[in-house]
UniProtKB/TrEMBL annotation:
InterPro entries: 3-OHacyl-CoA_DH_NAD-bd, 3HC_DH_C, 6-PGluconate_DH-like_C_sf, ClpP/crotonase-like_dom_sf, ECH_dom, NAD(P)-bd_dom_sf. GO terms for molecular function: (3S)-3-hydroxyacyl-CoA dehydrogenase (NAD+) activity; NAD+ binding. CDD domains: crotonase-like. Residues 207-307, 395-430 form the 3-hydroxyacyl-CoA dehydrogenase C-terminal domain. The lineage of its organism: Bacteria, Pseudomonadati, Acidobacteriota, Terriglobia, Terriglobales. SUPFAM superfamilies: 6-phosphogluconate dehydrogenase C-terminal domain-like, ClpP/crotonase, NAD(P)-binding Rossmann-fold domains. This is 3-hydroxyacyl-CoA dehydrogenase. Residues 513-644 form the Enoyl-CoA hydratase/isomerase domain. GO terms for biological process: fatty acid metabolic process. Residues 14-203 form the 3-hydroxyacyl-CoA dehydrogenase NAD binding domain. Keywords: NAD, Oxidoreductase. Pfam families: 3HCDH, 3HCDH_N, ECH_2. It catalyses: a (3S)-3-hydroxyacyl-CoA + NAD(+) = a 3-oxoacyl-CoA + NADH + H(+).
């Protein structure tokens, strides 16, 4: 990541977004997600009455806000974030920007419109306020040419990617006059508060990510036409096998909009000659122009490169695919390439790339496509790096970071080049008469075994990169507070590990337990590792003052290892199943009662057992993008590792300070219990960390990290602070007042009503009743004191009973096969 500055004297407390289209409104929503007040303005609809009090004058922004609330994927972390957005229009409400520290212009890609709006902004903005443009097609400096010094000095480009909540890249494009302090202030705010990866770009057409991405996409289309491939074949080749999004080329085009794709491509084509781009043959294909004439614009038009038409016999969407040669739609067929079938067995992308790239192009259809696709990408990317403003990037790092965070590539072009083998690849390119970029020649001249990157544990990022302008390696820049376990391991190594988990010394008395099984599924190896290392007598507890449980992977944990469970159930090894559940419970208890504070830092998917690990920690430090849920009912089970126990305790704590009603029953306790029952029985999954808090998985005191790359540092800081404050582990509760039979009867009545209304199946009802039984502490008198172990025993009883059900076994098998729940 580029690091224009880690500190700034400027605070950004309020932001204005000018333009409430798809991009502007979503930028505003994400700023509100960060808890920052934001003003959102747009034009008054043409022909609207002049009376400023008329609500129809804000029709555009009101419609935008309504769209944000309904958008999928969700623009807001929770609906409550919308309260931070103040709406208005350019004619009546421009004065609202007067107290804004940062003003973002996001109006039409038209120089006259942008300059006209800036004239209004200049009247109302406070001196020194930062103003930036989200343009992707106009030179940043040209937009403010001739404006006063104060505006030009505080002006630069901030190019967000859509949707801003989910796409991490923010390209910052300074002009020659831009204030370095302003660049630092926006960089720091966007990186910490908005979770952005900051990349500096020179002021050249399409900047970095769209320049490289448009070339790559256009080249894939060109090769498709030259090699007579189908749209589906190209999507299969340009998706997951390369570590690119599984949407591939054309499915991605449908998602972003064929017209948007065409706009970026035509902008590239128009300016390619003027900027001396060597690949002017990569432009807009004729068939895409015809698609736009037909208004086949992708998902928003319900047809584009693909089209949904009806359902198959199993109720799944039938998908048609466009024949680009005839413009007819044909039934979708799954392409088959032997090379891709072999590549499925190679887990790491770095290992798949050389296998795919260096296959025999004369006999392998996939290799014949991959060789020009990747080698031409390598050359094109290398030519985009210059130490002047003539090319978009000042280093290879900017390009790799831009493609990874703007297009969701697992590896950037130069990292892919390293994986392919720079020397081996360029030797073959030279033999084939392909051009070698000047920057590549400099790398080749530097070493017998040249690589763009090298590991170096002495620098904060753990890596150095080759700088072609000095022919030396320089540290990959990293902002203070950004870290990863991979980086820590380069300098500190691994203290202890098994197949599923590792213990890593983070320094300052803090250790991390890293999960690293496939999808971080929780099997016996992870359970044993955590239990042994967190017990009071362990060497780890003696050596460290606090612990963090987290990882570098995409998802924290998908829950218990269902395959192991199903095999044991099918073999009717009931003692083994019960022992596995007991061991899982022992693990979560070890987390809760560890004499050292354990902070769990979940991210991505945190399901089932992953939630139970989090619930038992001293504190949680989640990443904002957290999809958290006790989803066991979806596979016919209930939480068996202490999840129900903890939700019962939470229910009682939530209502313990509330006065009972006239009958002496805690009404508010029941309301909390009912909510938690619904959360478990309906397998609710949060769409953000903020929503996970409303579901009861996080406490108000649990802090949320916006930037994924800061999660490890934030969790370590939290663990250290808890330890330094004089942490005392909790004592197992022995007098928990069980909600009892009254609450149980009420919950069972609700389940019966749902079954009578045919909203759930008989098996759903059976599972839900077990959830109710466990949460209520069984059929006991309300208020009966019970122990934590008693509640764990109830969980285990319910879990084992459901394991013996044929329908549960069918659900588990179906989910393992399809990744989806079965309602039987």
């Amino acid at each position: 990541m580029s690091n224009p500055g880690t500190t700034s004297q400027r605070d950004i407390r309020k932001v204005a977004v000018l333009g409430a289209g798809t991009m502007g409104s979503r930028i505003a929503a994400h700023i509100a997600n960060a808890g920052v007040p934001v003003v959102l303005l747009d034009i008054v609809p043409p022909g609207t009455a002049a009376d400023a009090s008329k609500p129809e004058r804000n029709k555009i922004v009101l419609g935008a806000l309504d769209g944000l609330k309904k958008s999928k994927p969700a623009a807001f972390y929770t609906p409550d974030s919308a309260r931070l957005i103040t709406l208005g229009n350019f004619d009546d409400d421009m004065a609202l920007i007067a107290d804004c520290d940062w003003i973002i212009e996001v109006v039409a890609e038209n120089l006259a419109i942008k300059r006209g709006l800036l004239e209004k902004v200049q009247v109302h903005r406070k001196p020194g306020s930062i103003i930036t443009s989200n343009t992707s097609g106009l030179p940043i400096a040209d937009i403010v040419a001739g404006f006063p010094d104060d505006l030009r000095h505080h002006w630069f480009g901030t190019h967000f990617f859509n949707p801003p909540r989910y796409m991490r890249l923010l390209e910052i494009i300074p002009t020659a006059e831009s204030s370095p302090e302003d660049i630092a202030a926006v960089s720091l705010f966007s990186e910490k508060r908005l979770g952005k990866a900051i990349v500096l770009s020179h002021d050249t057409p399409n900047f970095i990510a769209n320049r490289i991405g448009t070339f790559s996409m256009g080249n894939a289309i060109r090769l498709m036409m030259a090699q007579n491939l189908t749209i589906e074949e190209v999507d299969a080749l340009t998706g997951s096998p390369l570590g690119w999004p599984k949407t591939g080329t054309f499915r991605l085009g449908d998602l972003v909009g064929v017209d948007v794709l065409a706009h970026v491509a035509s902008n590239f084509a128009k300016q390619a000659a003027s900027i001396g781009d060597e690949r002017q043959d990569v432009g807009l294909a004729d068939f895409i122009g015809k698609m736009i004439e037909n208004k086949w614009l992708g998902d928003k038009a319900k047809q584009g490169f693909y089209k949904k038409e009806g359902k198959d016999k199993d109720g799944r969407d039938l998908r048609l695919v466009l024949d680009w040669q005839t413009l007819d739609y044909k039934p979708s067929m799954r392409p088959k390439f032997p090379a891709l079938e072999m590549a499925k067995n190679v887990e790491r992308t770095e290992a798949r790339i050389p296998q795919l790239l260096h296959a025999d192009t004369t006999s392998d259809k996939a290799a014949a496509f991959y060789w020009p696709l990747l080698t031409e990408l390598f050359t094109y990317a290398a030519n985009r790096v210059a130490d002047t403003g003539k090319e978009p990037a000042g280093s290879i790092v900017e390009i790799d970071q831009a493609m990874k965070t703007g297009f969701n590539w697992e590896l950037g072009p130069f990292e892919m080049f390293d994986a392919a083998g720079v020397r081996a690849t360029t030797d073959k390119m030279r033999a084939a008469g392909q051009p070698i970029a000047a920057n590549v020649e400099k790398l080749l001249a530097s070493s017998e075994n040249p690589t763009w990157y090298k590991d170096d544990p002495t620098v904060p990022s753990g890596r150095v990169f080759f700088d072609p302008f000095t022919a030396t390696y320089k540290p990959v820049p990293v902002a203070e507070g950004v870290s990863s376990l991979a980086t820590v391991k380069k300098s500190h190594g691994i203290a202890k590990k098994n197949a599923g988990a590792s213990l890593i010394d983070l320094g300052d008395g803090v250790a991390a337990i890293e999960l690293h099984s496939k999808m971080n599924a929780l099997g016996g190896d992870i359970v044993t590792f955590i239990t042994q290392n967190l017990k009071p007598t362990s060497e780890a507890v003696q050596n460290f003052s606090s612990f963090v449980i987290t990882g570098d992977s995409t998802n924290f944990s998908v829950g218990a290892n269902l395959m192991q469970l199903l095999l044991s159930v099918q073999e009717e090894e009931w003692d083994e199943v019960e022992m596995a559940v007991k061991q899982f419970q022992n693990m979560t208890q070890a987390i809760k009662f560890c004499p050292r504070p354990v902070v769990v830092a979940p991210y991505g998917m945190c399901l089932g057992g992953g939630v139970e690990i989090s619930l038992h920690a001293a504190a949680r430090q989640p990443h904002a993008e957290l999809y958290m849920g006790l989803v066991e009912t979806g596979v016919g089970l209930i939480p068996g590792g202490g999840g129900c126990k903890e939700m019962t305790i939470k229910s009682i704590e939530a209502g313990s300070s509330i006065r009972p009603d006239a009958r002496g029953e805690g009404v508010e306790i029941f309301e909390a219990l009912k909510k938690n029952f619904e959360t478990i029985a309906m397998a609710k999954v949060s769409t953000s960390a903020a929503e996970a808090r409303t579901l009861g998985f996080l406490k108000p005191s649990d802090n949320i990290t916006m930037n994924r790359e800061r999660l490890l540092t934030d969790a370590k800081t939290r663990a250290s602070a808890i330890a330094a404050a004089g942490y005392t582990a909790p004592v197992a509760q022995t007098t928990i007042p069980a909600p009892g039979e009254n609450a149980l009867a009420t919950l069972k009545l609700a389940v019966w009503t749902m079954r009578e209304g045919q909203f759930i199946s008989d098996h759903d009802a059976k599972i839900a009743n077990w959830v109710a039984h466990t949460l209520c502490g069984g059929k006991v008198t309300p208020g009966t004191p019970v122990t934590e172990q008693y509640l764990l025993d109830l969980e285990r009883e319910a879990f084992l009973s459901l394991c013996g059900e044929k329908k549960t076994q069918e659900r588990i098998a179906f989910t393992l096969k399809t990744g989806k729940p079965l309602r039987n």
